[in-house]
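Query form — protein Histidinol dehydrogenase

QUESTION: What is the three-dimensional structure of this chain?
INPUT:
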Amino acid sequence: MKIIKLDSESKKDILENLLKRSPGQYEKYAKTVNEIINEVKSQKDQALSYYTKQFDKADINSGNIRVTEEEIKEAYSLIDPSVLEVIRKAAYNIETYHTKQKQYSWFDSEPNGIILGQKVTAIGSVGVYVPGGKAAYPSSVLMNVIPAKVAGVKRIAMVTPPDKDGKVYSGTLVAAKEAGVTEIYKVGGAQAIAALAHGTESIKKVDKIVGPGNIYVALAKKAVYGHVSIDSIAGPSEILVIADETANPRYVAADLLSQAEHDELASAILITTSKEIAEQVSIEAAKFTEQLSRRDIIQKSLDNYGYILLADSMEDAIETANEIASEHLEIITRDPFLVMTKIQNAGAIFLGEYSSEPLGDYFAGPNHVLPTNGTAKFFSPLSVDDFIKKSSIISYSKEALKPIYPDIVKFAKAEGLTAHANSISVRFES
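ANSWER: The structure tokens for Histidinol dehydrogenase are given below.
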């Protein structure tokens, strides 16, 4: 990995380079995505069959697009029992964590007849996109579905591309069943997003779409936003590690590579105040890369978006981390909790040398669906909040309205809205 002295110029160059990874940079695919969406809107299941044959080489139609209970039972027979046990343990941790996020309706009343409040209601239906093939991650199924179940969503429809034989990866089906998915469909890509957003003969429209996917999926979610709600437009994965001279360089190198292996566009950055740590991490990263199965992807990721930044002080390191606003932030310092109090922008923060990023990906409980590409400055991890909506409650008695109605009338007339004023004053005509 390249070691760079951290200064204002190098920081600017790195921030500009990282922005090149944004899904917004790939609008050249938008025309194709819009064509697919329009075709699904007009041809419905027929279009889903056509695109699934074209992209996934599978013969899918309205008769076999929905995964059956028999297919789910088969998936359970194929999965390693020890893996099933881990899925269940992870699901328990994820549900326990997200249950603490639940919000409830509330009402305040006053003696004169004023009642104000907030009614919390779960979204009616949610669509969950799950990648297939080499990018099939049962952990993402758990992370996207369980918060929706905790929120009280009644209908959760999952879409995922089949293999050429029309089968869905067994781990994905088992995770979906364990998490509480109500229906599963064998369709992927932009066409699956279009089906969830607009509905077909086989797939009913949903109210919100969540889940990761390739650039076509990301742009399709962007295109249907407003017609339905979405979680976010996710970019490539990223990790940033803040380390001082107390850090173990092997641990740091291993953690950086854990994200670099996701994608050639993934970003892995170390900011350290120690030149010795910087040099040792670079050496260890090279050694690990040679041993790992996805070494080609890792190397391209590190060549394009991997950095070791040598900072003059911990304050400079923290300031840069807040500018980058990384999806995953590890703090491996003498006092990680003190550093954490100064972090303003990060998707998930991992404290101490035994809190490696994959702990959050799989098992700890907090969600691994996180803001990327600097959006941690204004977005949060996926949570129960993403699956609820709130309604304001207002109730006034005549006794409560009478002393304040002239103020409302005056305000309305000041804005030139006489019908608003009349709606209030008519209640107090002689």
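ADDITIONAL NOTE: The chain has three domains: 3-22+236-364, 25-230, 399-428.
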